[in-house]
Amino acid sequence: MASLGRTFRLLRLLPAELQTSHVKPAVAFRVSSSTRNFSTEELPDGTFKASDVEVTLTAPHKLQAKPDVGNLIFGRTFTDHMFTVEWDKQAQWGKPQIKPMGNLPIHPAAKVLHYAIELFEGMKAYRGVDGRIRLFRPDLNMQRILRGAKRAMLPTFDPNEFIGCIKKLVKIEQEWIPHSETSSLYIRPTYIGTDPSLGVALSNNAMLYIILCPVGPYFATGFKPVSLYADPKYVRAWPGGCGDQKLGSNYGPTVFVQKTAEARGQQQVLWLYGEDHQLTEVGTMNIFFVVRNANGEKELITPPLNGLILPGVTRFSVLDLCREWKELKITERTITMAEVQQLTKENRLLEMFGAGTACIVCPVCSISYLGEKIDIPTAEQENPVYMKVLNTLSNIFYGKINHPWGVLVD
Ligand SMILES: *Cc1c(COP(=O)(O)O)cnc(C)c1O
User: Fold this and answer.
1) How many whole angstroms from 32 Cα to the centroid of ligand 1?
2) Ligand 1 pocket check for 190: Cβ under 6 Å
3) Scanning 141, 217, 300, 335, which has its CA 20 to 30 A from the CA of 5?
4) Residue 86: how many other CB atoms lie within 10 Å
5) How many domains does the chain have?
6) Model confidence band, residue 42 (pLDDT cutoffs 50, 70, 90)
7) Could you write out the three-class secondary structure of 22-68?
8) Is-contact 225 378, C-beta < 8 A?
9) Rounded Cα gap, residues 310 and 353, in angstroms
10) Burial 241-265 (b: 16+ CB within 10 A, else e)
11) Quick count: other Cβ atoms within 10 Å of Cβ 119?
12) Site to substitute for ligand 1 among 141, 286, 320, most atoms within 8 A of C-beta
C-alpha cells in the first residue's frame, strides 16, 4: 500500500517536471526556426540539401487523373510523386530524390516493422485566392519532427533544407492542389528506422520520405459539431511517455477506442487522464474551452504542454491569435471532468472545440461520460470564438490576408 501511495505521488509530481523540461526544446526551436545555416555541432548527423534533390518524373501516360475533391476520403488518394532520402551510419545521408510514387524496398527485419521506430508530421499546402501556393508555419513542424527524431534516436537534419525539399515536391505536384477554398494538399513527412536487425536498439539506417494527398472539406456536411465519448479506463498519454510526440506508436492503439466510441453512437474519443479525469485531447486534436469565469470574463482554456499533450501547430496558432485579439483571458491549465460538469450546470461553459491541421477547428456538442450525457452549447453561441479562429486561419491559408505564417512555396 505504501509503495502504491508513493507511485501515485510520483505520477502527480511528474507533469510539473516535464513542463520545465519542455521549455528547453521550445527555446532551442525558436533559434532553429530562423533561416540561418546550421553548424556541424548542431547537426551531428550532417544533412541532405534541397539543392541536391534528384528528380525522376513519372512518365506522362502514367500520371493519374485528378480526383473530384468533393468525394475524397482523407488519406486514400496519393499524388504521382514522392520524396525520399536515406541515411546510413557509415555513409551518412544519401541523395535526396523526388520520384514516382511507389512501394518502399524494405527488409522484413527493419526496426520500424517490429518496434515502431517511426514518426510523422501532418501539414498542408493551400492554393491561395491569388493563385499562389502556401505552407502554414512549416518551421513549427520542423521543430516537432526534429524533437521526435531525437526521441526515436533517428538522425537530425537541417530543417530549412527539409522545408526546401517539401517545397520542391509540392511545386512538382501543384496541379494536385485543389482550386477550392475548403480543400488543400495534405503533406505527410514520415521518418522510419530501417536497420535490418531485430535487436531493440538504435537504428543505424533510416529513411525520411514525403507523400501527398489531396484533401477535400474535412466535414462533408459542413461544420456539424461532434459528440464525444469519454471513458477514463482508456489512456492516450502518460507522464514520462511519448504522447507529446508524433510517434506512430501513439496512434495504432487508439483505433480500438475510436471504434468503441462509434459503437456507442459517439463520433470521437475524448481522452482523459488521471484520477481526477483531466481532459487532454479529442481524437488527434488539441482541445479548447471558452468559459465565462468566476469574474464574469470570457476565458479561453487549453491544457498545458505537460507531456500529455501533443504540441499542435494549430494549438499555438489559436493561442497566438486569441492573445493578439485581447478579447479573452487566455489560460493554459488542466481542466477536469468535475469542472466541466460544474461549469455546464452553471451555464458557464460556452464552447468546446478541437484544433488540428486536418480539420482546423472542430466544434463539440456533447460528452458522453460514465453514463451521463453532457450537452455543450458550442453551436448556440452568437459570435463563437471557434468561428473567428477558423475564418482568420482560412484567410491566412488562402492568402486573403498577408501574414508571415503563410509561407510561399515559390
Ligand atoms: C497532430 C496532432 C494534433 C494537432 O497538431 P497540429 O500540428 O495542429 O496538426 C493534436 N493532437 C494529436 C494527438 C496529434 O497527433
Assistant:
1) 21
2) no
3) 335
4) 17
5) 2
6) confident
7) HHHHHHHHHHHCCCCCCCCCCCCCCCCCHHHCEECCCCHHHCCCCCC
8) yes
9) 16
10) bbbbbbbbebeeeeeebbeebeeee
11) 26
12) 286
pTM of the model as a whole: 0.90
Residue type, 50: A
Q: What angle do CA 159, 160, 162 make, to 5 degrees?
A: 65
Q: Distance, CA 312 to ligand 1 centroid (Å)?
A: 5
- Per-residue cell: 185: 494538399
209 and 68, same structural domain? Answer: yes
CA dihedral 306, 308, 310, 311 (to 10 degrees): 0
The answer to whether the beta carbons of residues 331 and 289 sit under 8 Å apart is no
Residue range(s) defining the domain that contains residue 325: 226-397
The answer to whether residues 159 and 52 belong to one domain is yes
Q: Are residues 338 and 211 in the same domain?
A: no
pLDDT in tens, 347-401: 999 999 999 999 999 999 999 999 999 999 999 999 999 999 999 999 999 999 9
